[in-house]
């Protein structure tokens, strides 16, 4: 069964259409986002998530915003556009793709001559270009990464860096899709990825839709699976990569990297070049988003921790570059020492 | 607020009274188990859990069973008792305390002269002795282990090896309770411990009841907390310890031990001597219980994985003795090389 697109324009082209990832795998609900506030909510609440996908969502959100700006002057229009970009930018602080896409959209607007209507038209083209580039980027990552998968392979991944996180076939999952297309036997083990279970809910869903064998495990079970010799390699995505190669990705990634090193298992990060953040020297310069403790205390509506206890709920962690075998990107395979 | 006893006799002495740990922390429900089938269900379904506690539950379950045996001869009675012990023994395969307690009860029955009524009376005394020894054992572990906690300490633990897992103040948590009694500042970080969240549901509940500061985190967040220098030591429990010191404990323990080693953080295991299994040479000789995939696919009633995917859901993992700093027991602090 083909996957519905993660993010696309509605049929009449006025709304951003997404599959509500909070409701997967139980229900496939399509949302149509018609205002910039809708898009902000969808990003902040993880109805759409994954660094590349939220970059596309931000760009498309700015197109939606542009349509509703009531400004007669070019300057007033651009100022209102910057305000809308600021709202979108604040929804998630860690991924670099979102500010990257918004800055690119704003620069494109500023460089466009003419009236607000001309700029709006240009913004729509730029957002479509960002989405199209994302599809191409995913395919390139897939082709680069597939060269690292030899014969049959048992691959461990974490969270979701797949089709649902991008406009294409994913980042971490792209090499697996390409290897499977080429007829290689790929078996994927996926951490469920607490607290929001994007591994079990999303990665397992999209891989099984694609006919790739997938086994879900709790996050705590991955290291013992490595010890049992049942994992050949790990591939994860990234939300931001510092100049030195330190990687911010979903919390739990670092624990996997430590375990992979302990067992001598290759640990790959797959991410588009837009994730490289040359302005950030190392992982310790990155802002890590801490999310509501309710994600831990109220697990899918059930009380799972007593009232009043402290909760430590970072959304991401930093994996130092020393634990990374290679970074697979649309610009090729980067080996240590990294310098982006 | 004092903790209700984890396991005790009902007021009239005929039923095994437990706090239903599946319903914590949302509700404090007391169950009265009046038949051996009730006790088997409670153990198998984790209404009572924790290696020492299920040893006590097994012993008390055999007392309940003995009362309902309708046998005129001593031999018939003992045979029926062995059958009941077999039912209890099959409920959980990994912890050694359950067969240990059952074997001790059966040996005590076999060694008792007289009629079934005399043997029943003797079984009741033996079960009470096992429970009382457990309380004493916990206190000793607490006192031994507290000597390893110097001044203020930030301690990471996994799952629940506390009062709720024993007849006393716990095993892994006992040193923390004793250090807190002595006025030391102990701060506990607890992995929520998927899939059944005994860390967030049970450990956080009992520690916060006791006034000890506790912070809950997802299992994947522990390694990055270590990297941030926020953990001084780890203490976990054990369900079975092989002759060479390899430890079977809740899945995820091994990942923590690997991370602790990577960061140079002491990793302690606290367990009663009844957990030492001299008949099992190494961890690879242990049977690891695999539990229903529904614990992962249906998280507290919500569908959290697509239908038809494979689930890897071991309840335990093996931590090799090489990663263990010391084993804290009621018989003292055991340092490597271990030989039990």
- Main sheet record of chain A: 7 strands, mixed
- Unreliable residue runs of chain A: none
Taken from the alpha-carbon principal axes, the silhouette of chain A is globular
Order of helices and strands of chain A: EEEHHHHHEHEHEHEEEHEEHEEEEEE
Helix content bin of chain A: 25-40%
Description:
2 copies of one chain form a homodimer. With 340 residues, chain A is α/β, with parallel strands linked by helices. The first copy, chain A, has helices spanning 36-44, 51-68, 74-89, 97-111, 116-146, 174-181, 198-209, 222-227, 253-263, 294-297, and strands at 7-9, 16-19, 30-33, 153-157, 186-191, 214-217, 233-236, 240-242, 247-250, 267-270, 276-277, 298-299, 302-303, 310-312, 316-319, 326-329, 332-334. In chain A, helix 1 (36-44) runs antiparallel to helix 2 and helix 3 (74-89) packs antiparallel against helix 4. Chain A is globular and about 65 Å long. In chain A, 57% of the residues are buried. Chains A and B meet through helix 7, strand 6, helix 8, helix 9 and strand 13 of A and helix 7, strand 6, helix 8, helix 9 and strand 13 of B. Strand 6 (214-217) of chain A pairs parallel with strand 14 of chain B.
């Amino acid at each position: 069964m083909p996957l519905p697109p993660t993010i696309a324009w509605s049929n009449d082209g006025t709304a951003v259409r997404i599959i509500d990832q909070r409701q997967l795998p139980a229900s496939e609900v399509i949302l149509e986002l018609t205002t910039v506030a809708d898009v902000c909510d969808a990003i902040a609440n993880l109805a759409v998530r994954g660094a590349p996908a939220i970059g596309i969502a931000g760009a498309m959100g700015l197109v939606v915003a542009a349509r509703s700006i009531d400004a007669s002057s070019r300057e007033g229009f651009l100022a209102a556009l910057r305000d809308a970009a600021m709202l979108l930018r604040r929804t998630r602080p860690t991924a670099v793709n979102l500010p990257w896409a918004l800055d690119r959209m704003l620069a494109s607007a500023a460089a466009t001559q003419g009236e607000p209507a001309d700029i709006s038209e240009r913004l729509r083209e730029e957002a479509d270009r960002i989405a199209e580039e994302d599809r191409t980027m995913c395919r390139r990552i897939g082709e680069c990464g597939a060269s690292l998968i030899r014969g049959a392979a048992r691959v461990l991944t974490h969270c979701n860096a797949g089709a649902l996180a991008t406009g294409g076939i994913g980042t971490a999952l792209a090499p697996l899709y390409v290897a499977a297309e080429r007829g290689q036997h790929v078996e994927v083990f996926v951490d469920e990825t607490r607290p929001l279970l994007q591994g079990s809910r999303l990665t397992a869903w999209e891989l099984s839709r694609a006919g790739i064998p997938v086994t879900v495990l709790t996050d705590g079970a991955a290291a013992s699976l490595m010890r049992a010799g049942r994992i050949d390699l790990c591939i994860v995505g990234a939300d931001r990569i510092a100049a030195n190669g330190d990687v911010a990705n979903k919390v739990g990634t670092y624990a996997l990297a430590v375990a992979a090193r302990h067992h001598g298992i290759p640990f790959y990060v797959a991410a588009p070049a837009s994730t490289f953040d040359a302005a950030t020297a190392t992982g310790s310069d990155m802002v890590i988003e801490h999310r509501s403790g309710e994600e831990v205390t109220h697990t899918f509506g059930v009380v799972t921790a007593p009232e009043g206890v402290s909760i430590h709920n970072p959304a991401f962690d930093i994996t130092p570059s020393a634990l990374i075998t290679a970074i697979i990107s649309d610009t090729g395979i980067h080996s240590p020492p990294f310098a982006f």
